[in-house]
Specification:
With about 140 residues, the protein is an all-alpha fold. It has one domain. Helix content is about 75%, strand content about 0%. It contains five helices and no strands. Helix 1 packs antiparallel against helix 3, helix 3 runs antiparallel to helix 4 and helix 3 runs parallel beside helix 5. The longest helix is centred in the middle third of the chain and has 26 residues. The chain is elongated. The relative contact order is 0.17. Keywords: Membrane, Transmembrane, Transmembrane helix.
Length: about 140
């Protein structure tokens, strides 16, 4: 635990959370979902999201964007920590899984399983990229 930079992991998590919120809003808009400032009732918004949760294209693109942001988060955690890139990227991935388990809500089971399965490898890939870009041999 002493090799993990809590500061780096938290900063990377906050950055990715912001990216995920923004990309989620854009994705929802792209697929015709309700946007900010909409005049729809709570029930209408809930029904609109139920429709989106059945659109495989929406879900697949969401998984792709989420995986990409997880790679970025692993990269950020590793770079901000300045040492032990794999440990810090992995810690970011574990925290991301915990947050995802809280916020997965109405997602179909297959999306939850694929998302959880991709989280740690994506985060560690980000740490690996950080290590390569820092000029250190990957070992």
């Amino acid at each position: 635990m002493q090799n993990i930079s809590i500061r780096a992991v938290i900063l990377a998590t906050l950055a990715v959370l912001g990216i995920d919120i923004f990309s989620g809003m854009l994705l929802t808009q792209m697929f015709g979902g309700p946007g900010w400032g909409t005049e729809l009732s709570r029930e209408e918004i809930r029904r609109a999201y139920q429709v989106l949760m059945q659109d495989v294209r929406y879900l697949a693109l969401g998984l792709l964007l989420g995986t990409a942001s997880t790679v970025l988060g692993g990269y950020l955690a590793a770079r901000l920590a300045r040492s032990m890139p794999y440990y810090n990227a992995l810690a970011f991935g574990v925290l991301g899984i915990l947050i995802s388990m809280i916020g997965a809500g109405d997602l179909p089971t297959w999306v939850k399983i694929v998302g959880l399965g991709l989280s740690l490898p994506a985060a560690v890939l980000g740490g690996h990229i950080a290590k390569l870009r820092a000029g250190k041999p990957a070992s």
